[in-house]
Amino acid sequence: MKTIKCVNVTVRSVIDNTEDGLPVGESERTVITAPGSLTDEDGVLTVQYAEIGEDSQRTDVTLIHREGGVILSRRGSVVVDLVFEEGEECHTLYSVPPYKFDMTVITRKIRSTLTAQGGELQLIYDMNVGGQDKRVRLHLSVST
User: Fold this and answer.
1) Kind of pairing, strands 69-76 and 22-41?
2) Which of 16, 72, 96, 142 fits a disulfide with 82 by CB distance 3.0 to 4.6 angstroms?
């Protein structure tokens, strides 16, 4: 059975540039709050919302939470598809039209209390985009 709920989504992220796995310089911190939807279809949870950047460009975000991992897709001012599975490496393209960069993500931790009623999802991962190493801590809160 499929259920869809209107939700509020808050995304907090901290991105550190890293060198030899250690943070270098100042952290980039962002907080985004947006209306969205939460769909539960046979235990697979899908969160959808839109981010509006400082340049007023829209990026539609779809996050699919399934047993064993998370799939994150972004479409708009940024185009990327990521698969997060603890301890696994994901290779993809990160596109900021008209430019494309190779991107590698290694998922360090996934913590989730996300259910059809809402909850939280935390991802900690290392990424390399265009030769630059970063550590990302992403915290997603979903409330009905």
Assistant:
1) unpaired
2) 72
Q: Note the pTM of the prediction, 2 decimals.
A: 0.91
The whole-angstrom separation of Cα 33 and Cα 9 is 6
Pick the closest to residue 103 from 131, 84, 78, 76 (CA basis): 131
Q: Any idea what DSSP says for residue 53?
A: -
Sheet architecture: strand order including 44-52? 80-84, 69-76, 58-66, 44-52, 22-41, 2-19, 132-143, 118-129, 99-112, 89-96
For the chain (144 residues), the mean pLDDT of every run of 10, in chain order, is 92 90 84 96 95 87 94 95 97 92 96 96 95 94 94
Amino acid found at 73: S
Nearest to 123 by CA among 112, 133, 134: 112
Output the CA torsion sign for 59, 115, 111, 83.
negative
Ranges assigned E (strand) in the chain: 2-19, 22-41, 44-52, 58-66, 69-76, 80-84, 89-96, 99-112, 118-129, 132-143
SS3 26: strand
